[in-house]
What we know:
Layout (H helix, E strand, L loop, with lengths): L1 E2 L3 H11 E3 L2 H5 L14 E5 L3 E6 L8 E10 L2 E10 L2 H25 L4 H36 L4
Helix pairs in contact: 3-4
Amino acid sequence: MVSKLSLSEFRERLKNNTEIGSPKLKLSPFGIANGFTGTKPFYGLFDDKSFRLTLNSAVSPSFYIIKGKYKITNNQLKVDYIMEPGNQFQLIWARYSPIILILAINIFFLFFARGLRRASTIVNLFLLFMAFYSRWNEERKRKKLEEKFISIFEIR
Length: 156
């Protein structure tokens, strides 16, 4: 991808829009300790050739990291980046925990609460909704992170 910015402008925007710190630490359970102070949109590390950024939010973090490199080629700033899961366990938990809960609740109702069919139906519908919502929400956060990155660094 190509950015409309010059190399110095790109580095300046990285500096102005990124709070310095490890993106893996931000996505870990310990990330909440350093999360409420930042006003910059990204959290991560960068140098003269590469960057690793994630969303700077303690309340609703994205589990994805933008990892990439940038360089000048033919008088244009070329930015190569990929979106990768930062913490695989959290991503798997967000996607599959509602399904595991559906199985566990159904086993509970099957063996211990046979007279509560209406309650089991309501709980199953709620957990099914949560299964679809959690997948949709993670995809939405990934797209939001990528759109914010593209708009701030003017990538086309």
